[in-house]
Amino acid sequence: MKNIYIDYFALLREITGLPSEALQTDANTPSDVYDQLLERYKFPAQSSLKVAINDEFSSWDVKLSDGDRIVFIPPVAGG
Fold first, then answer.
1. How far, rounded to the nearest angstrom, does the alpha carbon of residue 43 sit from its chain's CA centroid?
2. What b/e readout covers 20-38, taking b as 16+ CB neighbours within 10 angstroms?
3. The whole model's pTM is what?
């Protein structure tokens, strides 16, 4: 079991109503975490997002460690 932290921005913050949350999980990758969160929130398709772990852009299949901070980054609308 890992303790990870998730920061929410833009659309995801609006959906969750939270700026961040701590999560205790057996998930091994950011993709697994996102799948768990889909059960709780109506998030957009994973394919429209980027992911960062500990302030660095990352792959969706990187192995997570205890204490990691994840940010799911939605597309930015311009105008």
1. 10
2. eeeeeeebebbeebbeebe
3. 0.89
